[in-house]
């Protein structure tokens, strides 16, 4: 067990901080999002409370739908911004901008898709007693 930090009371803030859905303390990912070779690595369970991060085999296949939603949102926002702020540039500018932003945001989209999947469909809710039990 790793040293615990103070739990985040709000589930929304814990999700944004990519913390365990049960104790709101343990990190969901093992490495920084800037580590481009290991940004996908997740521990099998929470290092603080032991909650499993993969409720069933293939659980995160559903996160692909969430990633698709992020991609559609990126396409729409970039398209609207370019249309209104850049005066409707040529098609290649739209394609290049969407491609660049998609590549740059891949680590974050991956992580938040998985976190949303775990928080919404993982069957685990915040347990303040569990979090308090693991504080040092």
Q: Could you list some keywords that capture this structure?
A:
mainly alpha
* Overall geometric form: elongated
What is the strand content? under 5%
In DSSP terms, counting alpha (H) and pi (I) runs of 4 or more, how many helices?
Answer: 4
Derived from helix and strand composition plus strand pairing, the structural class reads mainly alpha
What is the chain-wise order of helices and strands? HHHH
Instruction: Report Rg.
Output: 18 Å
Strand element count: 0
How many domains make up the coordinates? 1
Largest sheet: none
Give the low-confidence spans: none
Gap between N and C termini: 11 Å
Q: If you average the pLDDT, what whole number results?
A: 89
Secondary structure topology:
Blueprint: H1 11-16, H2 63-85, H3 91-121, H4 128-133
Q: Explain this structure to me?
A:
The protein is mainly alpha-helical and 136 residues long. The chain has one domain (11-133). It is built from 4 helices and no strands. It has helices at 11-16, 63-85, 91-121, 128-133. The protein is elongated, with a radius of gyration of 18 Å. The mean pLDDT is 89.
Brief characterization of the structure:
The chain has 136 residues and is mainly α.
């Amino acid at each position: 067990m790793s040293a615990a930090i103070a739990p985040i009371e709000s589930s929304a803030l814990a999700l944004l901080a990519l913390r365990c859905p049960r104790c709101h303390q343990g990190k969901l990912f093992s490495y920084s999002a800037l580590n481009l070779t290991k940004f996908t690595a997740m521990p099998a369970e929470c290092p603080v409370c032991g909650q499993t991060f993969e409720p069933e085999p293939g659980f995160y296949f559903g996160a692909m739908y969430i990633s698709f939603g992020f991609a559609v949102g990126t396409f729409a926002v970039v398209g609207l911004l370019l249309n209104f702020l850049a005066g409707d540039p040529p098609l290649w500018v739209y394609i290049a901008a969407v491609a660049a932003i998609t590549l740059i945001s891949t680590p974050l989209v991956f992580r938040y898709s998985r976190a949303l999947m775990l928080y919404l469909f993982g069957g685990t809710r915040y347990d303040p007693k569990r979090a308090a039990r693991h504080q040092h």
